[in-house]
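Troubleshooting entry. Yesterday's outputs looked truncated, so today I'm pasting the complete records for two proteins to confirm everything comes through intact. If either block looks cut off, that's the bug. Protein one:
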Amino acid sequence: MDTVPGLDLDHPPFDLLDAPGRARLQASVDIGFHPADTTLIEAGQASPHVYVILKGLVHAYARDVDGVEQRFADYGPGDVFGAWAVLAGRARLRYRTAGECLCFLIPAEVFRALIAGNSRFAAYFNEGLATKGQLSVSGDARRESAELMLTRVDEAQLAPAVHVTGTTSIADAAAQLRDAGVDCLLVDTSGMPEPGIVTRTDLLDAIALQRLPLDAPVGPLANRPLVCVDAHDVLFQALIGMTERRIERVVVRTGDGGIAGTLGIAEVLSHFASHSHLISLRLARARSLDEITAAASGMTGLVRSLAAHGARMPYLMGLVSALNERVMAQVFEHVVPAEYRNRVCLLVMGSEGRREQLLKTDQDNALVLADDLDWPELDAAMDRFSAALATIGYPPCPGRVMVDNPHWRMTARQWQARVAHWRSHYGGEAALDLSIALDARPIAGNAALFAPVKTALMTLGQDEILMHHLAAGALGFGAPLTFFGRMRSDAQGIDLKKGGIFPVVHGLRCLALRHGVAATASIERCEALAALGALPGDLQRDLPQALNVFQRMRLDAQLAALADGRVADNHVDTAGLRRLDRELLRDALHVVKAFREHVRRVFHVPG
């Protein structure tokens, strides 16, 4: 069909309409001319039209918590506004032309009919960022994403759960493995409430390495406790769990606590055409730093492949973090002699500590030492560790937040003294160090050494003065991204980290500390705060999606930069975004603006 001149029905959101909907829109749309400084929609009032700008610029204004009107966003050619004023009968913003403006006018009754008759078109306007995010993945990519990311564990081809008693001999157990066509058995032992698990590898090691006789019982060989996943868990999440724990099979539980079967890497890979398992396998077989480096070299390719198939950002970040953790832990074991590994604890911080790293970024790590540790070669070992990570592709941290820096390498008592110092020093380097430490999590060595340090950190949330100064950091950067259309940007584009990611990450970090939430991942912090009633309803829903939008757009820009031979950074060129992506970005940045105001009110930070 012929489109209305200038009104593009083949791009979002009008491409979401069915053919009858497009025909109805085409037959009813009108064009209106509006002089400069014309108020098209007044805040609090209904609108007789939904507007699509053909030419010109419209400013939207909102009132802040003090009732002062401020410019909220800009709308340019191709942008749609006024939908809320039609659907809810009351506009949230005031819309005023910045100069002469030419707009397409969609009658309110026609727009409401299009919403009623087209569910996907309705979702675009009625739902939050979550729905729009799904709409931004279209056609085959959306179907691939659904298949890849929404498959449940019970949809996989599970291996049957074969039980034996603890008195079963190694020879009989091996025969049962062969007859049942499985590679593990569940071992029921008298006096044990739960079975253990013994694998084909366990039996082989018992015979070849421990020199046990074939008639020895398998009970002592069983591994406990069972590592389990729920039958309704997402299959991709099971893959992340196996990668983190360095295992290749888990037990699948039913809703009533029963055992449905076992799930292994082979079954998972039947659904996922990625090479994540190959990276894990190469890491498991690596015996030198060169072999670890070779295994880790496939990480960027893995990220590129999963991103191209529409992988959801939380799952993608979880898998990458699990693989990064394995790389770093293996390097750590390579440079730290076995006799010292229980006397030290390796921490990761920053995006790796929050499990939000996608591409290899700066090293952010630290060390907790046993108070009585005597290791003369500590300095040299940590120098080798940092150098090895740099060789693998994790560049040194410009701020020297690394284990080869004594400032980030302390005994447990020294760490607790540092925390006490942070309680009385609110700004400068102390505030930055505290923010970094709040995202710390242990990945190698003796995690128990970090426990008292974590406890000390969590007590800081009750210090109102400290929290006031710490939260001010979330408001330190301006928010040029809240203006869309004619957004302010430099030659590099817009810095998504400063304008979007950091205010959310740091704001959630502060709120989590205040409310005693120990989680380090931003999404987990958000969920915990929501459960405690510490976030307004809209922010509970939209903050995770806003973060996903920023992460996805930054990743797309970084992968494109790497493909072009450029250095990947945090900037995105908004002029090159699709219209729906620009809408998503604008929505996400509005969420950030609302969240900043929430943080400001909670911690009494002046505007």
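Protein two, checking that the full record survives here as well:
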Amino acid sequence: MGIMGFLRERMGKILAFFIGFALLAFIVSEVVRSGGSFFRDDSNELAVVNGEKVPYDKFNEKLEQASAQFKQQGQSISPQITSYLQENTWNQVLSQLLLTKEIEKLGLVVGDDEMNVMIGDNNPDPQIVRQFSDPQTGQFDRSRYDQFKAYIKSGKAGPEQVKAWGDFVIDLIEAKKATKYMSLVTNGLYANSLDATDDYEAKNKLVKFKYTMLDYASIPDAKVTLTDADYSAYYDAHKNEFKNPQDTRNFEYVSFNAAPSKEDSTAAKLQAEKLAADFKASTNDSLFVQINAETKAPLTFQRKGSISPKLDTTMFNAAKGFVYGPYLENGSYKVAKLIDAKTTFDSVKTKHILIDLASVGGSDEKAKAKADSIKKLIDGGKPFADLAKTFSADKGSAEKGGDIPSFDANGNMGGGQGSLVPEYYNAAFKAAKGSVIVAKSQFGYHIIKVEDQKGSVKLVKVGIVDKPLTASSKTQTIAYSNAQKFLASLTPDNFEAEARKEGLKPRTAEDVTAVASGLPGLDNAREIVRWAYKADVGDISDKVYQVGDQYIVARLTAIKPKGILPLEAVKKQIEPAVRVAVKAKQLQAKFESAMGGSIEQVAQKVGGKVTPVENVVFANPIIPGLSAEYKVIGSVFGSAVNKVSKPIDGTQGVYVFVVDGFTNPPVLSNAIKQKEQVIQAMLQRSQGMLIEALKDNATVKDNRAKFF
């Protein structure tokens, strides 16, 4: 009866518990099944800045734009470049977000009238001027800008072009707001007459003094014993120097080399030798290259100096069909064959009229028809220069009657004036002197008149078949097995001892950020960095990591959180400075016991010498023959004449000095100009310092390591 009564009284609570538990289990299972987020961060949350989320997709869009711009410059995207672009984009996004918050607080806006001026015809924004400048003259091409705006407004532009222009205008508005905000801040910067005078004297007041110095190196390191009190004293005096701007990790690692062995190199060379024989017998060289080369490249004519140095002399003196190699270059065995050679003009001089698609409403057909009709007018005797000035979209050359500089067979114009697109220079080199032709490029249709063809140059067409030198499975297996054996032997305390047994020297990676891509000696080590941010101090890597041709085993040695680091976290780092501080105390004591009398007498007692110095200024605190000594020179300028100083600990040693005299500069005659220089120096530093101040005061939860 007691048990039944107990159950009746508490049945409601028991049911509620089980129902609640079942409901929670259902929610959790759904979250796990769908890949959603319940007990973890939002899957699209890259960061949270002062409570505002930064979506990953928005950030990644900006990152892809930055990467695309980098690629347009002809640069390859290496792991280091990827890391740089990620960090640079993050700093831009963070700075813009922090500035936007400040701008919103102040209510700064860009009005319609102001916007119309920025994108108008009379005085467009400098960014617009840069975008629509003539590449040859650097001058703003107003007609080209007018054509573009008309094209956007016509409704014929594609959605991507309209969006790109809209985003560009939004960026202009945000940049203008930021400029207003910075103006509000910098307008508060001020320099008075005293500031101007101080700056003038710091750069022009001269001092003449004598010093004696005891070098820190005079005390052997082995004779200096460092105590906990020494470390604490130094740490307390320099605590603000140990502020960690973000979480970082320290770890040590060893690598097992899996680079190609001599045996691998011999095998690869034998393969390349067989390819050389087959290449020599080939009757379809282009097909042979496409089938057998690891690096596919079109077969084109090239001039001397534009191919590999190993081939440059050989191929230009060889007969057609000559095969060179195999030879080792950039980690690959290569075989080269001279497919063809010819002599052509060294340079061609042309005029052109450009018909771009924007001028005919975006229609390729209309642009082609317009170009053909203009060519007929030229063939009929109409002056080329007049038609260029009237119709050409290339306003820089149009003003010169369509004339552009001479160019070589690769489209390069002399004097660093840039290069032409392949469609243009290939068409011009194939045409006869005096002829008028039409060629299409990415810019539209060109009506080209070949004015002159000068000189002659030999060109060669060389086919190259390459086979990368890679490690065999045997080489990789041996290296991996050795790494696995080493990993199995490790405990949290024997990492360095086991490494010495294997004849390995551990390398250290310090202050590694969560988004770092590379480590010392390792270009792409993201997997190791991700492991380090999940591990605890003393942990050994959970597996052998492969980075390039190296197998890596690591041990986490320190976790450095954001903020002021504790003494234990920086103890090893500050050890040299602490040792110098202890030496300084010993040398100061030596000087103190010798004080009394002239500086010459002091120097004699400590076994030093007196060195005279003159013409030193406060703004450039360098002691001739030594180094910058800020503390010493600052003390010199604050001292009385003919008075032996107290011992001063400097960068290189402990000093005692006596000032012989100061030479004051002429009275400042133009304080206004000096004020302007001081203010200009403040302005140059202000923007960077402002952004850093906003970052220091911001609360940032950085989740980038989860995405990259």
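Both blocks look complete. Sanity check on protein two: Residues 87 and 515 are 8 Å apart (CA to CA).
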